[in-house]
From TrEMBL:
InterPro entries membership: LRP130, TPR-like_helical_dom_sf
Organism: Goodea atripinnis
Protein name stated in the entry: Pentatricopeptide repeat-containing protein
Top-rank taxon, per record: Eukaryota
Gene3D superfamilies: Tetratricopeptide repeat domain
Amino acid sequence: MEVKQIAESRVRSFKLSDVANSLLIISHSKRGQTKEAVEKLKSMLQLDHLPSNLAITRLVQALGNHGDVAGIQEVESLIKSLGTNLNLSSMVFVNNTALAHITNGDVESAVELFDGIYTSPNSSNASMSFVFRKVLESGNDKALDKLSAMAERLANHFACYRPASDLFLQLLDLDKVDDAKFMLARCNALAEQKEVLLSFVAQKAQSPGQTGKIKNLMSLVPDFIEKEVLYAYLMKCHGRIRQHEWAEAAQGSLG
């Protein structure tokens, strides 16, 4: 019997806290127990309790991994019915619905979904990096070909550059520099997306060992950022390396 069941059998008024319930949803999701996770979410909402954003995200991701489009739609409907702003990006549902379609071998539905998002007003900056990352890591060339063709079409015919920028930066992040170079040649307006490129540099500067990725970007798009700003980010990245080395040395001495 689980700890929760034991506690409830001994203390009639025992109830898990919102934090504990959220952790339970996360645990079920990680184990692929999506049915149990959805039921726990429903029971929380019936009691007017709110799960954490992380719990919702992990549940939706688990449903996406299982190709459960209907399950994602159900969770999205439940969350929307709350009428409460959880500060949760709508792209959590969009991206994982697309991944569910891809998992089911239905890449066309994923493309149609993103087409609808990126050709609608006020959605041109929504990120689909998560989907490109998953597709690249899984080696799903069929899905990658169709999604990259969609991204280039949106860029070249609708001046919507976010999907193409997301793919370009994911290629760089996975050290697929030649693929990124070819993509830039096919869609050279990517070099003008300074805000997205700078965001990538700032993100990489937060972690040690990422200077090579920043330099690869600079080799392909040398003029998108002032040299002084670039050097500041590179110095920050080197500083992270030093901090990491000191932390490892300290841990070694304690051991």
